[in-house]
């Protein structure tokens, strides 16, 4: 029986798996990304671990798909990174062909996450989805009429870099006031640390859940505190979900997908994210523009991009 190799290269973690044609994961190797090691460290890990998995597979590995945590020129199959050195303009697909003797297709992690959820997760049974990853930043991938939408410059789905506020903070993309600066995990944590410094009484439970250190507050501890009724945490969650609702409603107006799927670490908050988000969407929506787009949390969790990488591999195989 045949299989493919799927690789997910992320800023914090990397994952490599062997998958069958039905999307079942047969084997897995994963670890923490050493950003200080740059491109060469990552390539060495991929080479070593991929060879090990292929050797143990017991079946023919036909092709490889890669999810890359950074900008990807899909047409040229070149990757870049805003955070790690050595990747700019790198032909990752050709490297795989040379080192592993496998044809390879590369896409960014948001597009791969969209494809993974569409084929094997919360997007099954639909024809169009918007996948939004809420993590350190905010990424997006669009499946339209059963196909990934890349756009002229491979920028389709970049919801996180839609400018929302002229008075907003600088963004990693070089812009200002992007959605990512308002409701990503990084933005939520930063907002929490600022509020805890200026008004610690309001953030008492959040600080307690952060081992008593206001500077250790993260989006995760804010959502945990909000679930327990912490007033400051509830304020921050409502503020962040309000901005997210505006971004998603704009996407609904433009794309009107069957389903919006929320992935990434922030989406693990589940109902504590979805409940206020739905309240904001209901308040913002115009009664004459009713929509039936569903909003769901990713079924594959943090593994959505890896499954999407496998789907890319099967497109080649």
Question: How is this structure best described in words?
Answer:
By secondary structure, the protein is an alpha/beta fold. It folds into two domains: 2-109 and 302-316, ATPase, nucleotide binding domain (Nucleotidyltransferase, domain 5, 2-Layer Sandwich); 123-298, ATPase, nucleotide binding domain (Nucleotidyltransferase, domain 5), CATH 3.30.420.40. The protein is 39% helix and 21% strand. It contains ten helices and 13 strands. The chain has helices spanning 38-56, 92-100, 109-120, 180-183, 185-198, 204-209, 219-227, 231-255, 271-284, 304-316; strands spanning 2-9, 13-19, 25-32, 60-68, 72-73, 78-79, 90-91, 104-108, 129-134, 138-144, 147-149, 259-263, 294-297. The strands form three sheets. A five-stranded mixed β-sheet has the order 3-2-1-4-8. A five-stranded mixed β-sheet has the order 11-10-9-12-13, sandwiched between helices. Strands 5-6-7 form a three-stranded antiparallel β-sheet.
Give a brief outline of the structure.
The protein is of the alpha/beta class and 317 residues long. The protein has helices spanning 38-56, 92-100, 109-120, 180-183, 185-198, 204-209, 219-227, 231-255, 271-284, 304-316; strands at residues 2-9, 13-19, 25-32, 60-68, 72-73, 78-79, 90-91, 104-108, 129-134, 138-144, 147-149, 259-263, 294-297.
What key attributes describe this structure?
317 residues; alpha/beta; Nucleotidyltransferase, domain 5; five-stranded mixed β-sheet; 39% helix
- CATH fold-level topology of the largest domain: Nucleotidyltransferase, domain 5
Structural class by helix and strand composition: alpha/beta
Distance between the termini: 13 Å
Order of helices and strands: EEEHEEEEHEHEEEHHHHHEHEH
Low-confidence stretches: none
> How many strands, which pairing sense, and closed or not: the largest β-sheet?
5 strands, mixed
Spatial order of the strands in the main sheet?
A: 3-2-1-4-8
Mean pLDDT: 95
CATH superfamily of the largest domain: ATPase, nucleotide binding domain
Any idea what the shape is?
globular
Radius of gyration: 20 Å
CATH class of the largest domain: Alpha Beta
Tally of individual domains: 2
Q: What is the overall number of helices? A: 10
Beta-strand content estimate: 15-25%
Helix share bin: 25-40%
Number of E-state strands: 13
